[in-house]
Amino acid sequence: MLSALLPLVYIQITPELLTVKNVKTGTTVAEIPELAISTSAKPRILAVGAQARLAAASEPATVVNPFAHPRTLVSDFTGAEQLLKYRLRRVLKPFIWRPSPCVVMHPMAKAEGGYTQVERRAFREMALGAGASQVFLWIGRPLTDAELLLRRAPEGPGEWE
Known about the structure:
Layout: E1 8-13, E2 18-22, E3 28-31, E4 35-38, E5 45-48, H1 51-58, E6 61-64, H2 77-91, E7 102-107, H3 117-129, E8 134-140, H4 145-150, E9 158-160
Parallel strand pairs: 1-7, 7-8
Antiparallel strand pairs: 1-2, 2-3, 4-5, 4-6, 8-9
């Protein structure tokens, strides 16, 4: 019952686009999933999304897409977790006390043979590390806001964990 009061965030992941949506407010951020990481002695994130390439052009940095790998959707776990953390902050309203959101992770890239147990766990762990209180994994077609608000498996093909 308490989970109904938590913010609900729907995250769709592809190598080309990361979409993070606060289902209750409709706030959505959709950008290329890239990070600019400084190449100094103490690496730090300089920029994310479309700003990453601009930041890398102005100072020494490496641009990384943590969701681009030929065999799997997650190529850089730490980078992916940091990118999700940044995006979650953008879609959740700033409060003095911000409750941790309930997150529905939706990897949308087609994995040959499906996602392995290790990949499924990686998606959950990165969302928890980014600040989620609860994580659900959805493998299937894109979900509607109504289906997400019901927080149960929708009709039709798909897998809800």
